[in-house]
Fold this protein.
Amino acid sequence: MIAHELVISEKTVASHVSHIFIKLAVTSRSAATAYAYDHDLV
């Protein structure tokens, strides 16, 4: 898990992911992945 590897709580990870979704104007991880591909980020 991401939280375990970074030595932070799962709630902190969820909060960061939520903020990323807001900044990208997406509602899911799959939409964020599509955004990354559409904008040549991966």
Observations:
- The longest helix spans residues 10-24.
- Helices lie at 2-6, 10-24, 29-38.
- The mean pLDDT is 94.
